[in-house]
Design brief:
The complex is a heterodimer. By secondary structure, chain A is mainly α. Helix content of chain A is 74%, strand content 0%. In chain B, a hairpin with a 2-residue loop joins β1 and β2. The chains are: A mainly alpha, B mainly alpha. At the A-B interface, α1 of A face α26 of B.
Chain lengths: 104, 658
């Protein structure tokens, strides 16, 4: 017997909240990036679940979305890591609370 | 005549140019300054003679032009050539020419020689402008200009306080008359609508005559006469003329004897058609009273020029009387002859003063007849002309014409008798003067060795002396050429006129009076002149009170000082007080109030307006400070905010869906 849609959604929600908490609370930029990735994959999980349980799974829309999303996510992770490294090289630190040059 | 009228304006313009150039000359360019003035007046004299010759057949030419317009009215000026103006122009340029030449000698040692000639030329220009003016307005402009020139020349030696005061007095006193004149002009303009004398039948003088309706009223005539009273030194405005003798003697001769003071007489002659019979009565009475009044004062004066000045006032009175009783020709004839012999007398007096080292007191002179023969001869001719010695002297004929006219005056015989008294007094004081100056012995050491003046001064005297004798023959009752010339008809040679209308009787009467006066005066003063004590006048010993009254000029100056001047000063002080205390206080109060209002406004501005504005801006700034704290650059906070907002949105949507 297959698990119902709600279980997937609850898992995705948990993943998202964990990711969000990580992104909001960690001081290290790398850990913030990991949190972001968790939230990202929670969204991807939602896509897959809704695709699997919708009336026309043969159209592969959800799957296609997730494929693109993963590709973009990979690129994003690469850019994010590159940014972190660049910032680290510049500031000799990867702690988020020291990065405040975005204020006006 | 048509030709000359075109160029008539050159007559005043030439001296005006000379005056203008003279004003720019350096003090040392004496020869050029004098040469310019004399050349200009010579040119004017020539032009005047040509103009005169064209008027011999009578007629009148005018040339008018528009000066300016306002609205629909235009103000016109112009010049006129008629016998009246022509004879006056010839007389003025002739006397001016001689006086200019004479001044070269008289002013030779003055360092402001060039300035003197500049002023003289200015005067000549203004006077000639006045003579040819065809508009009462232009007449008035020139009238004021001659007043200005007179002021400048009386005050020529302005470093002398008395000269400066005399200049001021002359200017102010004549101004009083001119105020009346100006009012008369305005009134006339209101009545007639034009100030042109002759304008092809539309001039203010012509219309009166043509329509026979008196546009002018007696009031207009009297107001205009006010101006003449001021300028010609008639009672009660005569006080300035004797004081005007503070100026250089050539000025006294030219302006204050021959020409400018006669301008008042000329004015009345010019506007004669406007003079109503009533106003002519006033003219006659004023003239007659002035004639006697001034002649009486002259008897007790000791300054050689002051005697002549009062004599001028008296003779001007005669002219006025002649105008009032006999008409234009009678007054103008005396004006012409008087100009000649009075200029002669003044220049002779100048020669005497020059010779006696600036001594002017006749008591200190004496015995000059041997030392200065030319001056003495010419002066004697002038004196006899003024006294009215019969037959060969012009004054006799012109004065006799006036007396004759006064005798036939239909209103009263009193002016005639006043005229006779004046003639008696004239002969008396002139004999006194001549005897004291030229006979006996001098008491003044300085005047002990007088010398004859240079030819440049005596030549004009000789020419004028000839004029003083010959001029009379042009206006005798036998051959009244002058009168006919002004009336524009032909003179007829007729001996029978002499005996008509009692004229011969009047002549004999006046001759007798003059003879008695001269003998009386001669008898009194010949003794005096020879005696050592010349200080006290015989009349003074005989009648001290009367003599003092005359010597102090009937106390007219003192009366004016006590009344008019004091009133004016009091009024001026009152005005000053009013100005300082009342109006000044009012102004100060207003200014104080304004300052107080400004202070209030300032306070309101600074506290209310500025304060509220400051408070507003501070609030904005403070709140900005608070808001800016949110933007701290911490991306995690931003993300947290987004998360919170998302949660809020979620709750809101869930809440709303139920």
């Amino acid at each position: 017997m297959t698990t119902p849609l709600a279980n997937y959604l609850i898992l995705a929600a948990l993943l998202f909240v964990i990711g969000l908490a990580g992104a909001l609370t960690r001081r290290n930029a790398v850990l913030v990036l990991i949190g972001l990735e968790l939230m990202f994959n929670a969204a991807n999980l939602n896509f897959i679940a809704f695709w699997r349980f919708n009336p026309h799974p043969e159209k592969l829309t959800g799957l296609m979305f997730v494929l693109f999303s993963i590709a973009i996510g990979a690129a994003e992770a690469a850019v994010g890591l590159a940014l972190i490294i660049a910032v680290y090289r510049h500031r000799r630190s990867a702690l988020m609370d020291q990065f405040n040059s975005l204020k006006g | 005549m048509e030709f000359i009228i075109k160029y008539l304006w050159l007559m005043p313009t030439a001296p005006l140019l000379a005056a203008g150039i003279g004003a720019l000359l350096h003090r040392r360019q004496r020869l050029l300054g004098a040469g310019l003035a004399i050349g200009a007046i010579l040119f004017s004299f020539g032009l005047a003679c040509v103009a005169f010759s064209t008027t011999l057949r009578g007629g009148r030419a005018t040339s008018n032009f528009r000066w300016f317009e306002f609205g629909t009215t235009s103000v016109q000026l112009g010049w006129v050539l008629d016998p009246l103006g022509a004879i006056m122009a010839v007389m003025v340029t002739f006397v001016s020419l001689l006086v200019f030449v004479y001044s070269v000698g008289y002013m030779a040692k003055d360092e402001n020689f060039t300035r003197f000639f500049c002023f003289l030329a200015l005067f000549a220009a203004a006077m000639l402008g006045l003579i040819i003016a065809n508009s009462l307005l232009l007449f008035f402009i020139c009238w004021e200009l001659v007043g200005l020139a007179s002021y400048l020349l009386i005050g020529f030696w302005f470093q002398k306080p008395s000269a400066a005061a005399a200049a001021k007095k002359a200017f102010i006193v004549t101004r009083i008359g001119d105020l009346g004149f100006l009012l008369g002009i305005l009134y006339l303009y209101g009545r007639a609508g034009t100030l042109l004398f002759y304008d092809g039948g539309h001039g203010c003088l012509e219309r009166n005559a043509n329509t026979g309706v008196m546009m002018g009223t007696t009031l207009i005539a009297l107001l205009i006469f006010c101006g003449a009273v001021g300028k010609s030194g008639q009672i009660p405005l005569h006080v300035w003329l004797p004081d005007a003798m503070e100026g250089p003697t050539p000025v006294s001769a030219l302006i204050h004897a021959a020409t400018m003071v006669a301008a008042g007489v000329f004015l009345i002659a010019r506007v004669y058609p406007l003079m109503t019979p009533e106003s002519l009565q006033v003219v006659t009475w004023v003239g007659a009273l002035t004639a006697v009044f001034a002649a009486a004062i002259a008897v007790a004066q000791n300054d050689i020029k002051r005697i002549l000045a009062y004599s001028t006032v008296s003779q001007l009175g005669y002219m006025m009387m002649g105008l009032g009783t006999g008409g234009v020709s009678v007054g103008m004839f005396h004006l012409t002859t008087h100009a000649c012999f009075k200029a002669l007398l003044f220049m002779g007096a100048g020669s005497v003063i020059h010779g006696c080292h600036e001594e002017q007191d006749i008591r200190k002179m004496g015995g000059l007849s041997r030392r200065m023969p030319v001056t003495f001869m010419t002066y004697a001719i002038g004196m006899m002309a003024l006294c009215g010695v019969p037959l060969f002297f012009s004054g006799f004929w012109s004065k006799d014409a006036i007396l004759d006219a006064a005798h036939h005056w239909r209103f009263s015989q009193t002016p005639f008798y006043l005229g006779l008294v004046g003639a008696f007094l004239t002969a008396f004081y002139m004999t006194r003067q001549v005897v004291l100056v030229f006979f006996g012995r001098s008491t003044n050491q300085e005047a002990e060795h007088p010398r004859e003046s240079p030819p440049v001064m005596t030549l004009p005297l000789v020419i004028l002396a000839a004029g003083a004798m010959l001029l009379g023959f042009f206006g005798t009752p036998v051959w009244p050429w002058f009168q006919s010339y002004l009336a524009e008809d032909n003179a007829v040679f007729d001996f029978s006129k002499l005996t008509e209308g009692g004229q011969l009787g009047i002549m004999l009467l006046s001759t007798g009076l003059v003879a008695v006066a001269m003998m009386l005066s001669g008898w009194i003063y010949f003794k005096k002149a020879a005696s050592a004590d010349r200080e006290k006048d015989p009349l003074e010993t005989a009648q001290p009170a009367l003599f003092a009254l005359l010597q102090h000029k009937f106390y007219v100056d003192e009366i004016y000082e006590a009344t008019v001047v004091r009133l004016t000063v009091a009024f001026a002080m009152f005005s000053d007080w009013l100005d300082r205390k009342f109006w000044g206080g009012l102004v100060r109060a207003v200014s104080w109030l304004t300052v107080a209002l400004a202070r209030l406004s300032q306070t309101v501005d600074e506290t209310v307006v500025n304060g509220s504005f400051d408070a507003g801006t501070e609030t904005v700034r403070d709140s900005g400070k608070w808001v800016s704290l949110l933007q701290n650059g911490q991306t995690q906070r931003y993300l947290g905010a987004i998360g919170l907002a998302f949660c809020g949105l979620l709750i809101f949507l869930l809440w709303g869906s139920q």
